[in-house]
Amino acid sequence: MSATGLALRPSTTRVPATVQLTDVSKSYGRADHRVVALRELSLALAPGSYTAVMGPSGSGKSTFLHCAAGLDRPSSGTVQLSGCELGSLGEDALSRLRRERIGFVFQSFNLVPSLTALQNITLPLRLAKRKADEDWLEEVTARVGLADRLRHRPGELSGGQQQRVAIARALIARPDVIFADEPTGALDTRTGKDILTLLREAVDDLAQTVVMVTHDPVAAASADAVVFLADGRIADEMSDPTADRVAARMTHLGD
Question: What's this model's pTM, rounded to 2 decimal places?
Fold first, then answer.
């Protein structure tokens, strides 16, 4: 399967893809217990693009994210981040790459309870032994609306505020790409909309590349393009999505 160009904007097709999966397969177990989660999946995502990944349970969404983000290694095929092949890296180098060049936003927030919001935001920099750019830190915390909550610990923040901390943490190291895994799944509708707006602004205003795994057609409609997975393969793609079109396609994905 050749790499799809759906998420590649015309003005950036000459620039190396931020995320490039080529013939990626991933299986678990052995013999009769072998489960194939991804099947020769190829996908190219351009710098500054915003892509949603959808599919039914068991379609390979989580495995796709784990392989694309260097959290798991594919059984075959290659994954590149801005031209760097992840399979060529040892565990230490791969951990360093994830820390410095990839941002993560999870449904469960994944904040350190004992740290303040500010300490959680700057944690990737501290782990990388890098000093925070104060101007950038100020801009990021202002963008996510946390300027007056930086001394609060996660337990003192609402779910929406905790997710804002997670987005600021993902942005602070100026990563090549942000992977968001069901970022609105634990939030109410209004708060979820605010989080989607922040991700959209990260793309439009900061030229950030965002890849979001979601089950929500409304969330997917905030992206530039949607990739639909089924049985570990790309079943369809949609540009300029709307919630109604995405929901309709999900209903008939097996057709």
Answer: 0.90
Would you kindly state where each structural domain of the chain is located, as residue ranges? 49-70+91-251
Rounded percentage of the chain residues whose pLDDT exceeds 90? 85
Domain 49-70+91-251 has CATH 3.40.640.10: no
Phi/psi-derived region of residue 34, left when phi > 0, alpha when psi is between -120 and 50, beta in every other case: beta
3-state DSSP of 180-215: EECCCCCCCHHHHHHHHHHHHHHHHHHCCCEEEECC
Residue-wise DSSP of 135-154: HHHHHHHHHTT-TT-TT--G
Report pLDDT digits (tens) over 150-161. 999 999 999 999
172: amino acid identity, one letter: I
Is residue 5 pLDDT above 70, yes or no? no
